[in-house]
Design a protein that fits this description.
Blueprint (H helix, E strand, L loop, with lengths): L2 H12 L11 E5 L3 E5 L13 E5 H7 L8 H14 L14 H6 L4 E5 L2 H7 L4 H9 L3 E3 L6 H16 L7 E4 L3 E6 L2 H18 L17 H10 L3 E5 L2 H6 L3 H4 L8 H7 L4 E3 L5 H12 L5 E4 L3 E6 L2 H21 L10 H9 L1 H11 L9
Parallel strand pairs: 5-6, 9-10
Antiparallel strand pairs: 1-2, 1-4, 2-3, 4-7, 6-7, 8-11, 10-11
Helix pairs in contact: 5-14, 12-14
Length: about 375
């Protein structure tokens, strides 16, 4: 039991793309004085005991007594500084997960937070809250929140309310447009709870994405790939299958995947996919898009052709495409719960400008220099 067990269960979920892709998810183990939390950017699928940060729980508790700035940037900067100060001696070269405070709040020895596309088909749907009540009884639902301190504050408020009412803390917490937290005192119970979640959702989902058909064939789009690769400063990775063919039939049909469902989608695939109407000049469409959004796209959809993942390297382009594939899954699953619901624009803007998520993305894509690794 303990840290070794935490690493084992982290690899169990982190190595399964049904639960974790890219740098998503975080896990923890705690005793009365110490919380061991996944270090930011550490891949769960390969994590060892060295990939966790030991945190002083007394200092984490003390953070709630601070008078924090009202401005979101100043607040997050202060919270980050306090989290860094709560690291135990010898942990100075690691940066704790942005969800450290939430993990510390939950009264369970082990906590495993993941973003399965099947779960997010529920949490990113119009009727998600109602569906959670119907399917998971006493599970907690948290409306869409900025990750980190704001999310932890929302959960803390709900836990305090349950405590005042004499209720136990829920072992399942579903987060709108984010994922699920599962808590238990043993790894076996964690696996049981996750198994129950997936079984229930597999029974409730009525449509699954159709990824059959030709995959990753450029066909007549090699010229588009060269142009998009040049515009993105690196690479364009192409994909086409039955689901993509349907979604790229027109701009209107593309609408259910035209924005971001979760923070991970924003970080790795961007919040503003570029849709290029058939016959339109690609460079002109790119310029129009970047002028409007203020940033280059990480995904480009070419009408009637397919999807391109874009990035400075082939790895980054492939990662963008992988996350957009998850977007398509979420959109399909959400049809069973009233239809898809994107993150609100103000929440998308927060993630696009949040240093913590920019840091995580740079770690995963390998674009963070050693000088700035914590």
């Amino acid at each position: 039991m303990g840290l070794k067990t935490l690493a084992e269960i982290s690899r169990f979920y982190g190595g399964d793309p049904d639960y974790v892709i890219a740098g998503g998810g975080n896990t923890s183990f705690k005793d009365t004085s110490t919380l061991w939390i996944k270090a930011s950017g550490a891949p769960l699928g390969e994590i060892s005991e060295a990939g966790f940060v030991a945190m002083d729980r007394a200092k984490l508790t003390g953070l709630w007594e601070l008078a924090l700035p009202g401005n979101s940037k100043d607040r997050e900067d202060r919270v980050l500084a306090e989290l860094m100060a709560a690291r135990k001696p010898g942990e100075e070269n690691k940066r704790p997960s942005v969800e450290t405070l939430l993990h510390d709040l939950l009264p369970f020895t082990y906590v495993v937070h993941t973003h399965p596309s099947l779960v997010n088909g529920l949490t990113c749907s119009r009727n998600g809250e109602q569906a959670v009540r119907e399917l998971f009884g006493g599970a907690l639902w948290i409306p869409v929140s900025d990750p980190g301190f704001v999310l932890a504050s929302a959960v803390r408020e709900k836990l305090d309310e349950k405590r005042r009412n004499g209720e136990k803390a829920p072992d399942l917490i579903f987060l709108q447009n984010h994922g699920v937290f599962v808590g238990a005192d043993t790894p076996e119970k964690i696996k049981t709870l996750y198994g129950e979640i997936m079984a229930v959702l597999n029974g409730a989902v009525k449509r699954r994405p159709d990824f059959g058909g030709p995959v990753s064939e450029y066909g007549g789009s090699a010229g588009a790939a060269r142009t998009l690769g040049k515009l993105s400063g690196g690479s364009a990775v192409f994909s086409r299958n039955n689901e993509i063919a349907a979604l790229t039939a027109s701009r209107a049909v593309f609408a259910p995947v035209s924005s971001a469902f979760t923070p991970d989608h924003i970080v790795y695939a961007g919040s503003d996919p570029l849709f290029i109407d058939g016959g339109k000049d690609i460079e002109a469409a790119w310029k129009d898009h970047t002028d409007r959004t203020g940033r280059p796209p990480k995904i480009a959809a070419l009408e009637g052709t397919g999807i391109f993942g874009l990035g400075g390297t082939e790895k980054n382009a492939a990662l963008a495409l992988e996350l957009f594939t998850d977007t398509m899954k979420v959109a399909a699953y959400a049809e069973s719960f009233g239809g898809p619901r994107f993150m609100p624009e103000e929440k998308i803007a927060f993630i696009n400008n949040w240093e913590a998520e920019q840091y995580r993305a740079r770690l995963v894509t390998g674009s963070l220099s050693e000088k700035w690794r914590f």
